[in-house]
Design goal:
It is a single chain. With 567 residues, the chain is of the alpha/beta class. 41% of the residues lie in helices and 16% in strands. It has 16 helices and 19 strands. A six-stranded mixed beta sheet has the order 1-2-5-3-6-17, sandwiched between helices. Strands 8, 9, 12, 13, 14 and 15 form a six-stranded mixed beta sheet that branches. It has a three-stranded antiparallel beta sheet with strand order 4-19-18. α6 packs across α15 and α15 packs antiparallel against α16. The longest helix is centred in the middle third of the chain and has 34 residues. It starts with a helix and ends with a helix. It binds zinc ion (ZN). Zinc ion binds next to α6.
Length: 567
């Protein structure tokens, strides 16, 4: 075992002390200080082109990734393992009056010990075995573990039979500009140095899955995330004659009831099940109060996937929306009939019909009907809309659909289904090719080698459950699956763009071996030192050695034994 504890802790503190909240100038400070730190190591003084600071692409904010390369000399080989971690954090507002101390773990611990704390937090604090602060868990201790290994092999390249690439990326907590931009650098280094990327090891944090869960998890792939969105047009009416119109909020309510928390929409794969979708927005587009019902409403849902493609999800949700729509109509009909009886008005059947349209079908229809005039108008409209910086990708998409709806000949109320945000692809690591098999085998060996040094079970699972940038490293979807995203995001190519082909080009199998702790994204964020600063770097190292091998397959086990006896 490498004795990494003290150095990983020290590096963690150095990283945490540079406040690097996503979408702030702190991201630049963080990249600068990491670039300097790596650049000052003797190996990189000798090989200055092996560390770079690389500006993000297609980004509205100035920020950088830091990449570094160490070439082993034990055996000259193309085999390369990528170590990835994000340098940005979420904000520090949650620390309240302790905000000033959020990025100074030692001061923070002192201040927290004067507060009344939840029992478990107090127990951890008093034990001295836990480290507190913004980013200690998510995920600067993970970056520190990677840095530790990078530094170690830069000092001992003769122990490395292959190469290591470190990616410390920005903007993980928001829009993934960091990892998406890094794909270009990976490609460039692959060509320049003839690197053969065998695997990527991410080191984002892991946490217990339920109260009392003793396991420390390693994830072999990651959950995918979609944001299915529904623009709902109604038929406007005065509230005094409500049955003469169709209130889009009524449809929205039924839609949310149908989709939120619905276990039929959980995606099971490799024995693991996603949590069901839940609504993240439900609004109408009335700018101010009037006594008219709304013209349109907007709802979107978080949607996790393990095995379904974005195309599958559209088809399932079209069905769900149709169910919701017809249920809303039958409730409305029932209530209308009852009202007519109560009030003595003559009953007449309401005209509404279930109508759910997938965005790309509406597009085709409009292009068929209006041709160039429509396309030109929309190009112009989107260009103008881009100037409004208050619109996020989700609102931008809704505004585009709203404008397109005006071109529809048949304006009877409808639900239009589309995607309005980044698709983070799912990654299933099934062992479907040799590369995946090798990584899975290396991981099993690493866990077996390290487990005896640690009292709690180290357990592997298939899907990292919290959404992370591993999504942007490999694609499990075919082209048809991806087309469902590009053709159904109204902001595609204007407000929003992802080069999925660049992901497919890199397509490296991934695992996540990361720090363990609690309360990421809140003021009690903390990591367990023993697992995070000792087991994580050693597990990562064991995977690296097994993948790169020493002098070929036969000696891989020997290499692993050698590192274990070092402690
Ligand atoms: Zn993270």
């Amino acid at each position: 075992m490498l004795s990494s504890r003290e150095e990983v802790l020290k590096l963690t503190n150095e990283l945490v002390e540079v406040e690097s909240v996503v979408n702030t100038i702190g991201e630049i400070d963080m990249a600068n200080s990491l670039y300097q730190l790596i650049g000052s190591l003797p190996y990189f003084q000798k090989n200055p082109s092996y560390v770079i600071k690389s500006v993000t692409e297609h980004d509205e904010i100035e920020r950088y990734n830091v990449l570094a390369l160490v070439k082993g000399t034990r055996e000259i080989s193309n085999k390369t393992v990528i170590l990835m971690g994000h340098m940005d954090t979420v904000g520090i507002e949650d620390y309240g009056k302790l905000k000033e101390k959020a990025c100074f773990p030692n001061e923070l611990v002192k201040a927290l010990s004067n507060e009344s704390l939840p029992n478990l937090v107090k127990e951890h604090l008093d034990s001295g075995e836990w480290h507190f602060g913004r980013g200690v868990l998510d995920m600067k201790s993970g970056v520190a573990s990677h840095l530790y290994l990078l530094k170690y092999y830069s000092e001992h390249p003769e122990q490395l039979a292959g190469n290591l690439v470190l990616l410390a990326e920005c903007d993980e907590e928001d829009s993934s500009h960091g990892v998406l931009s890094a794909l270009g650098d990976f490609k460039r280094w692959r060509d320049e140095h003839q690197l053969d990327y065998l695997a990527l090891i991410n080191s984002d944090f892991v946490a217990p899955r339920f109260v009392g869960d003793p396991n420390r998890y390693i994830y072999k792939g990651t959950v995918g995330k979609l944001l299915p969105s529904f623009f709902i047009t109604g038929s406007e009416t005065h509230a005094g004659s409500c049955f003469e119109g169709l209130d889009p909020n009524f449809l929205a309510a039924e839609l949310t009831r149908q989709i939120s928390y619905n276990p039929d929409l959980c995606d099971e794969s490799l024995g693991e099940t996603t949590v069901p979708p839940v609504s993240l927005k439900q609004t109408d587009f009335k700018p101010t109060y009037t006594i008219q019902t709304a013209l349109s409403a907007y709802v979107y849902f978080n949607f996790f996937i393990h095995s379904w493609s974005p195309r599958d999800v559209l088809i399932k949700l079209k069905d769900q929306a149709e169910l919701a729509y017809s249920r809303a109509l039958s409730t409305l009909e029932m209530r209308h009939r009852k009202y007519c009886e109560q009030s003595g008005q003559p009953f007449s059947k309401l005209p509404w019909k279930t109508r759910v349209i997938i965005y790309e079908d509406m597009q085709k229809l409009l292009v068929d009907q209006h041709g160039e005039a429509f396309s030109e108008h929309m190009d112009h409209f989107k260009a103008k809309l881009l100037l409004d910086k208050t619109l996020d990708t989700r609102m931008f998409a809704a505004r585009v659909v709203e404008e397109e709806w005006n071109w529809m000949k048949d304006k009877s109320p409808a639900i239009i289904l589309f995607y309005s945000s980044l698709y983070s692809p799912r990654i299933e690591m099934t062992g479907k090719n040799e590369r995946e098999q090798n990584l899975l085998m290396a991981l099993d060996g690493a866990v077996e080698a390290v487990q005896p040094h640690y009292p709690y079970p180290i357990v592997t699972r298939n899907f990292f459950p919290y959404v992370c940038d591993m999504s942007c490293i490999a694609l499990s979807d075919n082209e048809e699956g991806i087309r469902a995203v590009t053709e159904n995001n109204p902001g595609w190519g204007t407000k929003h763009y992802v080069n999925y082909e660049a992901i497919r080009d890199i397509n490296v199998p991934v695992v996540n071996i990361g720090p363990y702790g609690y309360d990421a994204h809140n003021r009690y964020e903390r990591m367990e030192i023993q697992y995070s600063a000792e087991m994580v770097p050693n597990l990562t190292n064991e995977v690296i050695l097994r993948l790169l091998g020493i002098g070929g397959r036969q000696t891989t086990q020997h290499a692993a034994d050698e590192t274990i006896t070092k402690s």
